[in-house]
Amino acid sequence: MLNELALKATNIVKYFYEPTKFQVLKSVSLEVPKGEFVSLVGKSGCGKSTLMYILSTMDTDYEGEISINGEKLTGKKQNFLASFRNANIGFVFQFHYLLPEFSALQNVMIPALKLAKFSKKEIEERAYQKLELLGLREQALKPASKLSGGQQQRVAIARALINDPAIIMGDEPTGNLDSVNTQNVFEIFQELTKTFKQTIIAVTHDDEFAQKSDRVIEMKDGHIV
Amino acid sequence: MRLTLQIAFTQMMARKKQTAVATLGVTFGIGMFILMVSFMTGINILLEETMLSATPHIRIYHEVKASKTSIIDEVQTGAQFMNVVHHIKPKDEKLNVKNGLMIAENLRQEPEVLGVSPQLTSQVFYNFGPIQLNGSLMGVQILEENKLFDLRSKLVAGRIEDVLASHNGLLMGVGLAKKLNMKVGDKVTISTPKGTLKLMQVVGIFKYGIGAIDDVRSYTNLPTVQKILGKDSRYVTDISLKLKDYYQAKRIAQIYEKKYEYKCEDWETANATILVSFTLRNIITYTVSITLLVVAGFGIYNIMNMTIYEKMKDIAILKAMGFAGGDVREIFLIQALTIGFMGAATGLMLGFILSVWVGTIPFDSGGFLAMNTFPINYDIRYYIIGFVFSILTTFLAGLFPSIRASKIDPIQILRG
User: Fold this and answer.
1) Burial class of residue B178, CB neighbours in 10 A (0-12, 13-18, 19+)
2) From the candidates A54, A101, A109, which should be mutated to test the interface with B, based on the most B CB atoms within 10 A?
3) Residues from chain B contacting residue A98 (CB–CB below 8 Å)
4) Which residues pair with A15 in a beta bridge?
């Protein structure tokens, strides 16, 4: 099972056109087997966030080929990719990016309501479980805008987990967290990969966090080192 | 509840003030539309009714024309002649409709005709002490005339039966009676263009609410006028007709004109200037109303655009989490349509309340029109038009911003 690939990227090339044409990614190839916890490190500007957005299917303006769970995603329609993301990819942004008008609970529930695999009652139950996992049960009904930065970040992680995605991607998921919560999140991630065979790819600047993960991929000037 | 619906409503509830402002824009637009249309059509209907109350739908009379050809053209024909006759005058024709009473009888049998009244009108002078007032005397079969124009309801004094009871009884217009200082029972001497004099007695006073009639006209029995003018008992000059459907008047008038070979004038032709003013008023009403609605629509467009600009990040997040462009478009269209729906509902209510209020404002038309307050026309059709139009405007106003929202690229925004 461990050899089955969760993600495969071949010869990814990406240009930025503004202000001038600039090659960010120079033929990056990457394979991540299922259940692996991968950290992506490198100096800022080396293209790791850009790679991340391409891998997450949000950015479609690239050359090369990407498949997730054996399904080729390059060249697919936006709407297909959107529903694919909804079901298979959980994304944690550098900033929390919650919907401020909604409660923490609703924020976590929205992707699941969109997927509509479970009834609303079950989804609510599951959302509470995820929030509990991140120590946020008491904050569930507060509006997202009333939570602290760390709490918001953890709600965003809970939101990424709600649909039990095959791959969880994080752009510095623990960037805004204190050491206790960073540790907590790390353990949750590890648990997810070990027990549930979910794959995690996280961009990080936290060396300690990176060292503890299964594999560290270092990037430099658009290459994988 | 659908997820997009829930997101749309939650966002709107979080921005109550903005939502209220956008809704109020539609409310005022629709409210003013309803008020304007109700008021304007109310006036038009009142004027039309007033006009029709005194106008026959079709009037048949003998039109005196100068003949186009002179007798010499009949005698000297051929290419070798060139006849020039200057200023041909009409022959001394009788003004009457020949066989008028028979034609009237005939018309009564037609299925589309409601009533027929043969008339004989003469210009007369009303002698008031040393002054003579110009006017007209209309000889009618008073009960037929009553059937056509509901004379009984127009009487301010006296009874129409009293006209039948005496050979010189007279129903006088209210304006004329005032000028002559006449009350019921008073007597007046009239003189005809031929110079005959006749003493008449006022037995009733009527009021149409149209100065052109009330100030000049009197009614009396048909034989009385025939006698004054020295004509026989079959002599009539006009036949007035009322139809069951007065919008058919133009068509029917043409048929009768062919059939009886007399001039048949329908009410629309006779009152063309008034009808043109109705049309112009309608155009103004609709122009102003549509402008109001378009302005309201632009208000919504602006607010939706601003909202989408503010919500750019949220849209990107929704898309990152797997919402398709269509879902995002749906969210913003729901918001626009909700504003349109609420605005339409409150606007129709506002319009109705304002109409009722305007309908109670007293207005003195100087006795020219039968009205005490502003006329309002409550027609459900205008409410439906207002509702449909507001939904349509808000839909269009929301459509373009929401299409823009659906095309937002999440990456560009999230990369920051």
Assistant:
1) middle
2) A101
3) 317
4) A23
Residue A7 lies in a domain: no
The distance in angstroms from the start CA to the end CA of chain B is: 33
Task: Report yes or no on A6 lying in a domain.
Answer: no
- Report the pLDDT value the prediction gives residue A1, as an integer from 0 to 100: 41
Confirm whether A10 is domain-assigned: no
Smallest CA-to-CA distance from B320 within A39, A53, A185, A134 is with A53
Does A142 fall in a domain? yes
Q: Using the beta-carbon criterion (under 8 Å), do A111 and B326 form an inter-chain contact?
A: no
Q: Is the peptide bond before B410 cis (omega within 30 degrees of 0)?
A: no
Beta bridge partners of A168: A90, A200
Asked if the ipTM is above 0.90, the reply is no
Please provide residue B285's backbone torsions phi and psi, each rounded to the nearest 5 degrees: -55, -50
Give me the CATH number covering residue A82: 3.40.50.300
Number of structural domains in chain A: 1
| Location of structure tokens 């467009």 | B301
What is the band of B352 on the pLDDT scale with cuts at 50, 70, 90? very high
Quote the mean pLDDT of chain B: 85
Q: Which two tokens stand for residue A199?
A: 């794959």
Domain that holds residue A171: 34-62+75-224
Is B313 in CB contact (< 8 Å) with chain A?
yes
Residue in the structure block whose two tokens are 């990037």: A219
Give yes or no for a contact between A34 and A199, defined as CB atoms under 8 angstroms apart: yes
Note whether B3 contacts A84, CB cutoff 8 Å.
Answer: no
